[in-house]
Amino acid sequence: MTLRLLLPPSVGAARAHARAELLDQSLRADLAEAVEIDIADSYADLAQRTEAGEAHLVWMPPTICARLEPRCRSIHKCVRHGHATYRSCIVARKGEVSSLSGLIGLRPAWVDRLSVGGCLLAQDELRRHGIDSADLGAQTFEGSYPDAVDAVLHHRADFTALTVRDDTPAATRDGIAAYGGKPATDHLVGIHVTRSSPNDAIGVTDALDPRRAEKIARRVFDQSGARARAALCLALDAEGFIRATRGEYAPLRRLIRHAEA
Predict the structure, then answer these.
(1) Reading across the β-sheet that carries 57-60, which strands appear in turn?
(2) Phi first, then psi: what are they for 183, rounded to 5°?
(3) Contact status, residue 238 vs residue 80, Cβ threshold 8 Å
(4) pLDDT tens for the chain, residues 1 to 261
(5) Is 257 exposed, middle or buried (0-12, 13-18, 19+ CB in 10 A)?
(6) Separation CA 199–CA 83 (nearest Å)
(7) Which pLDDT value is given to residue 22?
(8) How many degrees, rounded to 5, is the angle at CA 231 between CA 225 and CA 235?
(9) pTM of the full predicted structure?
(10) Helix ranges, 86-243 (H)
(11) Which of 40, 199, 59, 179 is nearest to 121 (CA)?
């Protein structure tokens, strides 16, 4: 049976396709089985296809981890900069906004309705400060972090939200650079960093039988010398993986309910 890996679209199409090629070669070599890799059209599409049993391995944003935990044999959190958690930073053009209250009436460019770093954590932080969606200008959902940054740089929107590793200024600069390069670091600035969330993860789904799922989990995620594990780390910009505990992503379901209300 062909092993099917499903990737989200949020990193941008060009990067996602490049990562897919790398993963295809390494998974085939390490697992000695055919591999089919696809990129979902949206987070909702990723969740729906996983629930339909169309994928065996799924790179899942945290909200999708919360939604799909019952459909996974195991979930393996990405570790970056020594952390298995991250935050979101609201960013805007330099010189235009200096605080959350300054965002009232401005237009947000979110990544996706179900993106934790690119939407939900930022929206939750705004609500905690008394700012609801009705207080903002027209919002758009750009589909990826690079596209959301581009919308702000080219004045199609006034602010966006990006993933950052922690709440330091250096982490904010690195996050802006990762998704927008030098033009973004020259013209964008961080306004506010949110609370943390568990990182994105790879889910081994129940479309695999339990024995095969555990075999793949051990060979790919638990063996530090595995070629497929190294390829996944490179493709996901990760240092390694930690198995998530059951229920670890459950607090995010409250944010999902707000998004779907």
Answers:
(1) 35-39, 3-7, 57-60, 201-205, 72-79, 240-243
(2) -55, -35
(3) yes
(4) 788 989 887 656 666 677 777 777 777 777 777 788 888 888 889 999 999 999 999 999 888 899 899 999 999 999 988 999 999 999 999 999 999 999 999 999 999 888 889 999 999 999 999 999 999 999 999 999 999 999 999 999 999 999 999 999 999 999 999 999 999 999 999 999 999 999 999 999 999 999 999 988 888 887 666 777 887 887 788 898 999 998 899 888 888 888 776
(5) exposed
(6) 8
(7) 73
(8) 145
(9) 0.75
(10) 121-128, 145-153, 169-187, 210-216, 227-235
(11) 199
- Farthest-apart Cα atoms in the chain, separation: 57
Q: How far apart are CA 89 and CA 189, in angstroms?
A: 10
**The two structure tokens encoding residue 180:** 């927008």
For 142, the enclosing helix (H) or strand (E) is none
Q: At what angle do helices 252-260 and 121-128 cross, to 10 degrees?
A: 80
**Contact indicator for 121, 197 with CB cutoff of 8 Å:** yes
Query: Token match 């062909």: residue?
Result: 2
In the chain, the N- to C-terminal Cα span, in Å, equals 39
Q: How far apart, in whole angstroms, are the C-alpha atoms of residue 64 and residue 181?
A: 28
* CB-based contacts of 245, cutoff 8 Å, min separation 6: none
pLDDT in the model for residue 173: 96
Sign of CA dihedral 220, 222, 227, 231: positive
How many helices and strands (H and E) does the chain possess?
A: 9, 12
**What tokens does 229 get?**
């594990």
Of 257, 252, 230, give the one whose Cα is nearest residue 241: 230
Q: Over the range 39-54, which residues count as b (16 or more CB within 10 Å of their CB) and which as e?
A: bbebbeebbebbeeeb
